[in-house]
Please model this.
Amino acid sequence: MTLHRPPLSIDAGLARIAGQLPDGWAGMAQAVERSESLVRAWGQPGRRERIPLEEAIRLDLAYRAAGGMGAPLYETYGAMLDAAGVMAFADEIALGRHAALMIKETAEANAAAIIAAQPGRTDKDRRQAMQEVEEAIAVLHRTRVLLGGPSATGPP
Model:
């Protein structure tokens, strides 16, 4: 059965890692020295099992070692933290400051993507563009949270 995974949820982050690792969920279980069923349970809503921080770090590192860009669980945690913080500390000045950061990061991503699309581009140019795009996406997710849009499911 296919499970619906809300974007920026622990479950979606785990699924992203499973999709990158050669052995999928079994490879994740091996990376953290836990059972595959426990690793799967960490992302299932309604289950009491929660992923320990140390295992989240190990899985994000395994994702990168397998060629993944970013850190799915770290990014999810950041979005969840932002969502919880917005409820407690949001104001218009913070949104204005964040909008300036959003403009900066997306402009850098655009510039890097243009360079990566040019004839004679290098692998370094492509990696730089991917990094800039990942940073822009993270800022855009935080902006969406600040604006009160759809965000990670998690603690209020």
